[in-house]
Specification:
Rossmann fold; 2 domains; alpha/beta; five-stranded parallel sheet; 35% helix
């Protein structure tokens, strides 16, 4: 639930906007209302809302004066005004949206949805950062999950389910035990550093494999390995001995 503060020098405008939010934007709860810049600043500091609906022309300083006094601020801003000549300045203050009075219901709903989507993404980013920090604090062998991209954000997969990582043109294709293939903009070196070294081995510049999914070694200068899904991969000559040693084999 997103908490919002409404600031408008016309109390009736605040009342109308509150009613519209209650009826059409169930993801938003109105935490407070103010009818001037001075009270608005105090209310924001006290309530620390996620979102502020802000009129521009008000007593005791306009909306930009208010924001200047609160910098740096972490809440999102949607300007609500009867004037359309402030648009450029509004977006210089990182406004998420700009609504003209009288507020159109569909435009309001769209603006609120943009706030919700933005905050969802921020939440996912925070989870990813926390996961990476955890990986840095703990030995690599203790890593159990990894964040991989999806169309909605990130999906956390068990490390044990990663069959192999394949480098292609600066991207990394992660092949999962389910048969799913996930594309990441991270290079394969980053995955090599992140994934547990007791479980994964870099057999070639383009392949990092989960040793649990290796089913055969095929002789050759460097040789090849066959994965449990039938995929055959080349082993770099310089990596052959170390790979075989991981399985307790020598002199093949």
């Amino acid at each position: 639930m997103i908490s919002a503060v409404l600031i408008d020098d016309e109390p009736k405008n605040n009342a109308i906007l509150e009613k519209m939010l209650t009826e059409f934007c169930p993801g938003v709860t109105v935490a407070g209302k103010a009818d001037n810049s001075r009270d608005g600043i105090e209310m924001i500091r006290k309530l620390t809302p996620d979102l502020v609906f802000l009129d521009i022309e008000m007593p005791y300083g306009n909306a930009f004066d208010l924001l200047d006094q609160l910098k740096p601020f972490s809440f999102d801003v949607i300007f609500v005004t009867a004037f359309d000549n402030y648009t450029l300045k509004a977006f210089k203050y990182s406004a998420l949206d700009y609504l003209l009075k009288p507020v159109d219901i569909e435009e309001l709903k769209a603006a609120v949805e943009r706030v919700i989507e933005k905050r969802k993404k921020q939440h996912v980013d925070i989870r990813q950062i926390e996961l990476l920090l955890s990986n840095l604090k703990n030995p690599r062998n203790n890593v159990e999950k990894i964040a991989l991209p999806s169309s909605q954000g990130l999906v956390f997969h068990d490390v044990q389910d990663i069959v192999r990582c394949e480098a292609q043109r600066g991207y990394t294709y992660i092949h999962l035990a389910s048969g799913q293939k996930v594309v990441s903009s991270r290079n394969i070196k980053e995955f090599e550093e992140m994934l547990p070294e007791n479980l994964f081995f870099r057999i070639h510049n383009s392949h990092l494999v989960n040793l649990n999914f290796v089913s055969k070694y095929l002789k050759g200068r460097g040789g090849n390995i066959e994965m449990t899904d039938g995929t055959v991969l080349e082993v770099a000559t310089r990596r052959k001995d170390e790979l075989l040693a991981r399985f307790g084999a020598k002199g093949v």
